């Protein structure tokens, strides 16, 4: 079955860095975009980044995170990474990776949450 497993979260001071990993199985990884989302307590789940399936591995970031977060993928390892630099306390959240393997749009960004399969999440806490 489809499985997405996030890892790499933890506690870091403001200004520090973390690299999250999303390991996938149960589907043809190369064929699908993978998105990262986050959810802070009491807030909605927001998109953080996305990387498409195409040969260029097109990436997407919201303007507010561009320059601090970098997404990449290693298709040989069925893994997507999210490098997070210059972390801020407002980055504190549970981070999830997701893939849309249901709709006909699953190869492209953004990943549509309503169609997505999700990992269990990894907690990122940034102290001030």
Describe it.
This protein is an all-beta fold and 128 residues long. The mean pLDDT is 95. It has strands spanning 3-7, 10-13, 18-25, 34-39, 45-51, 59-60, 69-74, 79-84, 93-99, 117-118, 122-127. 0% of the residues lie in helices and 46% in strands. Strands 2, 4, 5, 6, 9, 10 and 11 form a seven-stranded mixed β-sheet that branches. Strands 1-3-8-7 form a four-stranded antiparallel β-sheet, with no helix packed on it.
Sketch the topology as an H/E string, one letter per element: EEEEEEEEEEE
Q: Helicity level, as a percent range? A: under 10%
Radius of gyration: 14 Å
Measure the end-to-end span.
Answer: 40 Å
Number of DSSP helices? 0
Number of strands: 11
Flag low-confidence runs: none
Structural class: mainly beta
Strand percentage: over 45%
Write down the overall mean pLDDT.
95
Question: What general form does the structure show?
Answer: globular
Profile the largest sheet. 7 strands, mixed
